[in-house]
Amino acid sequence: GNLQVTNYEERRLLRSPLFLSFYEKDKSISLRANNFYEIYFEKLSEAYMQEYQKQVNFVSLLQQTAYDMICEGTEIITYESVVELFHKQGIGDECINWLIEKNRLFIAGLNHQLQFFHQSITEFLAANQLTVCINENPTFIDSILKSTRWDYVIQLVSSYLEDNIIDCIFSRLLEVDYILAMKASAHLEKRQEYVSERIAEYLLSCGKN
């Protein structure tokens, strides 16, 4: 079918080889980044359930790990650390090996090193953990804005924020990085009109100064 591209977020997604590879298999796939990744992990859980008759929420399981990876500025985790994480949740080695060998969520490297098969997977998982932190304490955003490695994570977080948090977060974004605020606004599912008005007001005020 014909893709109707309406905003920056959709154009960015369509430039991703990861998305295009999935789109070739399913033309009805969502053009919203969060929805796309959510569907990916839902299908991953369904496939694991079919093979092992066990239910695993891979997002909840891996979001803290991905968050820590971005904090540390690394794309690498050790096989041993993943084993430890899974074992704490009562999940055996067969699941890890399945994720490496059959579904390629992880790519295995030298010296027992693993990484997620695409950086955007790491960012999506980290966004889920960052959302928890920001919804609990909106000022947490200040520590994140110090590094550009969080930019796309913040964009993904925007669609998960509670209504009463959105205004605070976007006010802070406009103070620090209005370009990031504009990109993040494309991901909003609530308060779009309010945030768009605040961005327009900010740009107009900049033009007068």
Describe the protein.
The chain contains 12 helices and 3 strands, in the order ααααβααββαααααα. With 209 residues, the chain is mainly alpha-helical.
Main β-sheet: number of strands, strand sense, barrel status? 3 strands, antiparallel
Low-confidence segments: 1-6
Number of helices: 12
Which secondary-structure class do the elements indicate? mainly alpha
In percent terms, what proportion of residues is strand? under 5%
How many E strands?
Answer: 3
What is the straight-line distance between the termini? 47 Å
N-to-C SSE string, H for helix and E for strand: HHHHEHHEEHHHHHH
Q: Note the overall shape.
A: globular
Strand order of the largest sheet: 1-3-2
Q: Overall mean pLDDT score?
A: 86
Question: Radius of gyration over alpha carbons?
Answer: 19 Å
Helix content percent band: 55-70%
SSE blueprint and pairings:
Elements: H1 8-14, H2 17-25, H3 33-52, H4 58-72, E1 77-78, H5 79-88, H6 93-101, E2 106-108, E3 113-116, H7 119-136, H8 141-144, H9 151-157, H10 163-176, H11 178-185, H12 192-208
Antiparallel strand pairs: 1-3, 2-3
